[in-house]
Amino acid sequence: MRRSSEDTKALILAAARERFAADGYERATIRAIAADVAIDPSMVMRYFGNKEKLFAAAADVDLRFPDLTGLPRESVGTALVTHFLDRWEGDEGMMILLRTGVTNEAVAERLRGIFAAQLGPLIAALHDDPSQAPSRAGLAASQVLGMALCRYVLRLPPVVAMSREEIVHWLGPTLQRYLAE
Which domain covers residue 37, as residue numbers? Predict the structure, then answer.
């Protein structure tokens, strides 16, 4: 059965997300992604141009922060940890960035940009001194990225064994300090 161009593009993107998440940027190939979709590699190039553009589309991440300004100030840390756990466990784009960002400088820069552009303004809205937002965002990112790296990539046994509730319990107060104190 013949697919529409939009269906083909969506299948390529889904296969690319899986391949980049599993193999990382360096080892994932256009040929392997095309094989996953059962198409010629030239079709991948037709829709996305090159591997870098395909990666950019596959790793296009919106952190989709909830509005934390309406929450009681003392609960924003736990709310943000819960949100990040939901995002890491439900978005291959996040995993792609995490796995490849540790070995590829261009991807690391993209990850830094996402956190700066999306987390910084959130923290600025929560704190009385917006000039501290970049530092606070960097510290908050260090916690959630470190936890995600240990839990989902390195699979550090004690961190993997923790329940979501335990992670929120331990990490929530730390983020609370960075976000609202």
Answer: 5-58
Tell whether 132 and 169 lie within a shared domain.
yes
Q: Are residues 113 and 54 in the same domain?
A: no
- Closest-CA residue to 167 (of 179, 177, 158): 158
Q: Where are the alpha helices (DSSP H) in the chain?
A: 5-27, 30-37, 41-48, 51-58, 76-90, 92-101, 105-126, 133-148, 157-161, 164-180
- Same domain for 132 and 54, yes or no, is no
Query: Are 10 and 36 within one domain?
Result: yes
Task: Give the list of residues 6+ apart from residue 162 with CB closer than 8 angstroms, or none.
Answer: 151, 170
What are the tokens at 16? Answer: 């690319």
**pLDDT tens readout for residues 55-73:** 888 887 788 888 888 888 8
Asked whether residue 26 is domain-assigned, the answer is: yes
What tokens were used for 133?
Answer: 């937002």
Alpha-carbon distance of 85 to 62, in angstroms, equals 14
What domain count does the chain have? Answer: 2
Q: Say if residue 15's pLDDT is above 90.
A: yes
Rounded to an integer, what distance in angstroms lies between the CA atom of residue 87 and that of residue 63?
7
**Residue 53 region, left (φ>0) first, then alpha (ψ -120 to 50), else beta?**
alpha
